[in-house]
Amino acid sequence: MKLAERVGQVPPSLTLSIAAKAKAMKAEGIDVCSFSAGEPDFDTPAHIKDAAKKALDEGKTKYGPAAGEPKLRAAIANKLQVENGLSYKAENIIVTNGGKHSLFNLMLALIEPGDEVIIPAPYWLSYPEMVKLAGGTPVIVSTDASTGYKITPDQLRSSITPQTKLFVLNSPSNPTGMVYTPEEIKVLAEVLVENDILVVSDEIYEKILYDGAEHLSIGAVGAEIFDRTIISNGFAKAFSMTGWRLGYLAGPVELIKATTTVQSHSTSNVCTFAQYGAIAALEGSQDCVEEMRQAFAQRRKVMLERLNAIPGLFCPQPDGAFYMFPNISKTGLKSLEFCDKLLETQRVATVPGIAFGADECIRLSYATDMESIEKGMDRLDKFVRSL
Ligand SMILES: *Cc1c(COP(=O)(O)O)cnc(C)c1O
Q1: Closest C-alpha among 98, 18, 99 to residue 353
Q2: Is 202 in the pocket of ligand 1 (CB under 6 A)?
Q3: Ligand 1 atom closest to 97 (CA)
Q4: Which listed site, 31, 171, 173, 357, has its alpha carbon 20 to 30 Å from 211?
Q5: What is the pTM of this model?
């Protein structure tokens, strides 16, 4: 069979496959410490599940509008106004099957052959692949620990060409956990406005911040950047709803209409009763979000201390999300070999940095219980010392 060329250019998601391998090992009874999953380990809060159950019982089981339930679109617009200072109406919102689907819809609606999309590395592994699937060209700009893994205004400026259409911003970041300060966001916004470039701001980790780090949504900087901003967000990370498949995109009406057309011919509306769970997530108490954040904060402290106590590893302190991204280059191993050997010999699952465009690092998620963190760090320590 001759498959379409576009598929050959794109590898399958390495994070999903490693997480699956670790889960399969666990199912076989092998004692694996898994730091590979990009999802909170908590159950979805009860009031959110109850709202979806109620919707199910009330017969919210039919097709709905492709762009989402009107009540949910309005609730999202309200959230963006109140929490992020962004003036959107319901017509500026599309509800999607997760943040990943938001971004995919966006790339299909916006990007065509010849278009360049600037993506700072380390990046979330799906960004470049989505750009390629849409026929565009990802332009990867490498950053390192010396700038806190953040793209500088000069780096951004010098990677812009006449073909540049979009800049992908992800703060707090997966995989590095770094958070751009409001001041840094403002300066990047200036460069984008000067050069008339669109920005998609992936804000899926906006609620998971530590030690007073602040999240500024780039669209809130001013009217000129607001017109060039698309917000991608979802319910997976803040509300521990990864399996629900619920995300959204906010932006100019013309673009939201185009993404709705794409969605209307691909997935149609998001599961109708699940959307009622999302309404409850936005309108109910936010205490659950804070409780999970506090648990992450404790684990972060322990994992960071343990990692930096291992000779040969170096991990800068992340300000958000739930990942550590230590540099392993002093061990002499590349990331894939490091992660393979670590899983084989010590039963610790991590993700090679090469998946995120940084072969000198590995990613560990601390969205897991403290006991596994302690045990996993003991094993990692033993592994590195054995090299
Ligand atoms: C998890 C994640 C998403 C979206 O996940 P969904 O489960 O599709 O909502 C988007 N961007 C980043 C950086 C993520 O880590």
Answers
A1: 18
A2: yes
A3: 8
A4: 357
A5: 0.96
